Amino acid sequence: MKNIVLFASGSGSNVENIVRYFKSNPNITITAVLSNKRDAKVLERCNNLNISALYFNKSSFYEKDLVRKILKALNPNLIVLAGFLWKMPHDLIQDFPDKIINIHPALLPKYGGKGMYGNHVHQAVKENKEVETGITIHFVNENYDEGGIIYQAKTNISPEDTVQSIAKKVQALEYEHFPRIIEKLLIKG
């Protein structure tokens, strides 16, 4: 049995997609979803999906080691950041080498780094008149969006595309590819 722990900060649409993808797989289970926002919609989604979800604050993540202890107890095969906006602490990265992955809504190394998430990314892509964008699934290291690239998928964009239409194209790529790449990593590992 392979275990996944998911981290999310927002609505949790990627979390729900991942949960549904693995629902009928007896060899892979979503052990828990952890969120740094008490009012994040992802917590409501987890309740509806019958998935254990925990809220934690900044102190329990960075100072008190509480989240680290929870993760060690859960012993995940993979930790998946699905719309999680905080930088992972160095100790967690050391405890789970090559077991923490993230999805980024652009083709890294472009449009990565602190503050580059969601519509901020899509706005920058539009302003720079890019002809394509996409997703990058990558390992997490000590720096935002700089870990080794696992997989990228692209979509064409045109001058007529809005920030919202770019977001929809990117989200479609996330839904299609993220669960499949997670599964590949679990089978390989």
Helix and strand topology:
Elements: E1 2-8, H1 13-22, E2 28-35, H2 41-49, E3 53-55, H3 58-62, H4 66-74, E4 78-81, H5 90-95, E5 100-104, H6 118-127, E6 132-139, E7 149-156, H7 163-188
Helix pairs in contact: 1-2, 1-7, 6-7
What are the key terms here?
189 residues; alpha/beta; 40% helix; seven-stranded mixed sheet; single chain
Would you give an account of this structure?
With 189 residues, the protein is of the alpha/beta class. It is 40% helix and 23% strand. Strand 1, helix 1 and strand 2 (28-35) form a beta-alpha-beta unit. Helix 1 (13-22) packs parallel to helix 2 (41-49), helix 1 (13-22) runs parallel beside helix 7 (163-188) and helix 6 crosses helix 7 (163-188). The longest helix is centred in the C-terminal third of the chain and has 26 residues, at 163-188. The chain is globular and about 50 Å long. The mean pLDDT is 96.
Count of DSSP H/I helices: 7
Which ranges are low-confidence, i.e. pLDDT below 50, for 5 or more consecutive residues? none
Q: Give the terminus-to-terminus CA distance.
A: 12 Å
Mean pLDDT: 96
Helix content: 25-40%
The sequence of SSEs as H and E is: EHEHEHHEHEHEEH
What value does the Rg take, in angstroms? 16 Å
Strand tally, please?
Answer: 7
Overall spatial form: globular
Strand order of the largest sheet: 3-2-1-4-5-6-7
Bin the strand percentage.
Answer: 15-25%
* Structural class by secondary-structure content: alpha/beta
Major sheet: 7 strands, mixed
